[in-house]
């Protein structure tokens, strides 16, 4: 597992050197076996690593890694961009199983984040956040963003958005049965995940209002 983790760390954090190694290794195999397809194979593998290297690393570490915490110690904005946003270089410390810390690094484009999605979310500096790694090679980490305080807050905000939307409709027309039903449904979904008394009270009030209108 440690060897696999080291390989995935290298391929996901050093894309340019990975391409060179792929062409060297597969080029040598092509020369020794007299089969050109070995060399041709280097092209799709290089492209695949560029797009999926960090995702594969994230899946592997989440599947086989152990949980711990890390803290970002440095966040430096570079001159390079990705989707019109500046790429950042990060340094962090990772807590090992013996309680000691080890340094690591990653960037916006090389960070492994779980769950895997089309978004790059990095925790703030100086705030401890959950990660996973393979014991013996702790510098290769996957960020468990949804389990961090920022991630939990983001999930809560996304679940609260339908409630606010339904509330605005309801406040615009408190006699509209469709709006009341939509508000009730949104509150039911929200309170199923978050035990907040004020929202539960409002939910019961709306149910009574809807009965009175029928």
Mean pLDDT: 90
Distance between the amino and carboxyl termini:
63 Å
Total E-strand runs: 6
For the sheet with most strands, the description reads: 6 strands, mixed
Overall shape: it is elongated
Strand content: 15-25%
Total helices: the number is: 6
Read across the widest sheet, the strand sequence of neighbours is 3-2-1-5-6-4
- Global structural class: alpha+beta
Number of structurally distinct domains: 3
Q: Rg to the nearest angstrom? A: 24 Å
Query: Low-confidence stretches at least 5 residues in length (pLDDT < 50)?
Result: none
| Overall helicity | 40-55%
Order of helices and strands: HHHEEEEEEHHH
Give the SSE map.
Elements: H1 2-13, H2 15-33, H3 37-64, E1 66-82, E2 85-95, E3 101-107, E4 112-114, E5 129-134, E6 137-144, H4 149-172, H5 177-193, H6 197-213
Parallel strand pairs: 4-6
Antiparallel strand pairs: 1-2, 1-5, 2-3, 5-6
Helix pairs in contact: 1-3, 2-3, 4-5, 5-6
Characterize this entry briefly.
By secondary structure, the protein is α+β, with helices and mostly antiparallel strands. It contains six helices and six strands; from the N terminus they run αααββββββααα.
What does it look like?
The protein contains six helices and six strands; from the N terminus they run H-H-H-E-E-E-E-E-E-H-H-H. With 214 residues, the protein is an alpha+beta fold. It has three domains: 2-56, no CATH class; 63-145, no CATH class; 151-213. Strands 3-2-1-5-6-4 form a six-stranded mixed β-sheet. Helix 2 (15-33) crosses helix 3 and helix 5 packs antiparallel against helix 6. It is elongated. It starts with a helix and ends with a helix. The model has no long low-confidence stretch (mean pLDDT 90).
């Amino acid at each position: 597992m440690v060897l696999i983790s080291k390989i995935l760390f290298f391929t996901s954090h050093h894309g340019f050197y990975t391409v060179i190694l792929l062409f060297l290794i597969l080029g040598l195999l092509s020369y020794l076996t007299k089969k050109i397809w070995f060399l041709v194979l280097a092209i799709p593998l290089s492209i695949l690593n560029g797009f999926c290297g960090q995702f594969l690393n994230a899946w592997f570490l989440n599947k086989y890694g152990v949980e711990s915490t890390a803290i970002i110690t440095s966040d430096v904005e570079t001159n390079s961009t990705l989707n019109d946003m500046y790429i950042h270089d990060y340094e962090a410390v990772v807590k090992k199983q013996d309680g000691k810390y080890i340094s690591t690094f990653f960037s916006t484009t090389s960070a492994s984040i779980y769950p895997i999605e089309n978004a790059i979310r990095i925790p703030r500096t100086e705030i401890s956040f959950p990660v996973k790694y393979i014991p013996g090679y702790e510098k290769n980490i996957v960020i468990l963003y949804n389990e961090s305080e920022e991630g939990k807050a983001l999930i809560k905000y996304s679940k609260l958005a339908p409630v606010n939307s339904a509330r605005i409709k309801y406040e615009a027309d408190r006699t509209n049965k469709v709006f009341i039903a939509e508000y009730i449904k949104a509150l039911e979904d929200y309170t199923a995940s978050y035990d907040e008394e004020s929202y539960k009270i409002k939910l019961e009030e709306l149910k009574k209002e809807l009965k009175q209108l029928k």
